[in-house]
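Retro notes - structure team

What went well: the batch runner handled both jobs without manual restarts.
What didn't: labels got mixed up in the shared folder, which is why I'm recording both outputs here explicitly, each with its sequence directly above its tokens.

Job 1
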Amino acid sequence: MSVSELATRVGLFSTASMWFALVLRARPALRQPHQRGLWHTVLATAVAITLFQPEVVGRLTHTGMELHTVALTRNLIGVLSAGLVLLFMVDSTRVRRLRLTVAAGLTTVMGALVALDLLQAGHPHETVTSVQGPADPAFPYWWILIVAHLAGDAVALVVCWSYSLRTEDRDLVWSLRLFAAGSVLALVFWCGYLWHLYGGTSAMLPYLSLLIGVHGCIRAASLLVPTATTLVRSWSALRVTWRLWPLWRDLVLAVPQVALTSPQRTRLQEVLRPRSPLALQAHRQTIETYDALLDLQRFVQPGACEEAQRHARRKGAPDHWLAAAALAGTLGQARRAKLAGAPPSVPRPLPGVEHGSPATLLGIARMWPSMTDALPWHNEPVDAVAPTHRE
């Protein structure tokens, strides 16, 4: 695959990813002031990069739009995106005068580009005919165009990186650093483009196209960070709910007072039709499993953990699962003892579960199906109840 073909594919992918990110994040981003500026910045970048793709330009010119019009629109929206980057950066300072200065500068630059283009209207032979070239090859035009981009991306790089070192919000850190990385690629692109316009060969254009395509992907990623975090958290909660469900169901059926709601009929129903958000459900099931475990410690027989561990070793359980298997077997016996009506004894704390670690509970849940009935129960008292509070 040639560099030109790769650049075309990356460019189309970056365009699609940016529009996907914009649509997906439109509603939540526009409702939050600190996300709104980023969304508008990526929107302007998406339009400019879309108009940079040769296939898109070809279709527009095929419908009757002049190549010069497409290039001018692309240049103006590109400068607008650079100005929005600056506005996005200075907005955090809350300095109204600085925002007005950037807005005035942006308006001046865009007006200058339009004025320079109109001045060249009487010289159509000087208009660049390249699909990805500027609307006007005159020195003042492309110099203003490129300097505006370089200024916006340079400020974005410095501000985003410095802010990312101060905040503790992980989503914001990743968004800012990805945005800074995209600004680095944009700086390299515009420096290369300046070199090309000043006298470089056209052989470097495919590499510049590839660079701007990767830049678009990174811009989209910076916008999608909150969505990615939400998906990761949802997947983690779904995983906890799915893996913990058999243990949680059996324990809360034996100790129903710890559960806010009774288990549904199947594990599939529990994850496909949750009665609360997945993160809350996973958290609730973890707490309820631990509370049930604490209650069942009153029914643990002496030596049960050691016996369950020996049983698991005989069955060939890996060494790193022996502790979880021992706990699962002990809990299984204690659960059956309570369901059989055995009188409780003084609680015997189970080793390794003092703080209800989710990892420990998930380890027990992993061994639960094979260890639930590992230890025999003969429907006899576990221990005599110790009169610890005799008056």
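Job 2
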Amino acid sequence: MTQTPVEPVAGVAADQARPDNALQGSGSTRGARKRSARKRSARKRKEAATAFTMLIPSMIGVGVFLMAPIVLVIIISVLRWNLISDPVFVGLTNYENMFNSNGFWNSVWVTIQFSFIAIPGAIIIGLFIALGLNRKLPGSGVLQIMYVIPWVAAPLALGIVWSWLLAPSGLINEVLGTRTAWLADTTTALPVVAFVYIWQNIGYISLFFLAALQSIPKDLYEAAELDGAGPVRKLWSITLPLIRPTTFFVTVTSFIASFQVFDLVYGLTDGNPGYPGGTTDLIAARIYNSAFTSHQIGDAAAMAVFLMLLIVVVTLVQQRYFSSRMTYDMS
């Protein structure tokens, strides 16, 4: 019995041919994806190259004016050098001399006292000034300019002017009707230096706080008023928590600045930092005297390295304290 061959139906033939077309289509799709990925990768490399090219001037500046001096100071700290004779490698001798020096530890203690007086005072007064300026009363713009002028002015010039004002025959004593030598008394010299520092920096601090206060949504205060919150409650529960990032920034920068104060003290003490009796002997002033008065460059470099490490450690402690207590989202 003969069987007649059956011709494949057109639809079946199409179905049988479809997998090959699907494979071809899938291959072309993968090829297109690979080309697209290569294009994106090339574009990203080009953008990265452009970004790094634009960063080169800044990177050169950071390297030359920041990193290179730090490395140079570390190298000098292990040398004995007076700027005239050839430097001699002495290892850690300069650090041993520093740690065994009573004068150095006195400078550290004086600087800590100065910071504990100046930093809280400047931050608290700056905050209250910012709260007043935030009310946008008449003349607030003029007051902002007046508060900033001392911070913009040269600290050395301010120190000289304040030394005249605080002299026994100066304007301060004339107004008070006294003849007190404010900067020659061991009990008043450091507080007076801290007072001048606060006066100089409250404008800078108040502007940062003012910017933070203006970024707080007013809806929060309105809701708090509806709940019966008074001014003190709003300050404690809304304002202070929401300006913690600014408080952190101001605290860190004020701490760093207070440990680097020199020119203001130099002007207040008529070029004799430490007078009277070492009560104004801030660590930055001791570094200056060691380097340019005693010509002990290695000792000064060792103290500068210690100061840098101290600032880094305290800054990290402050960052750890504030990091879990800060709120950035005010939406």
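One thing worth noting from job 2: The longest helix spans residues 10-76.
We'll revisit the folder naming next retro.
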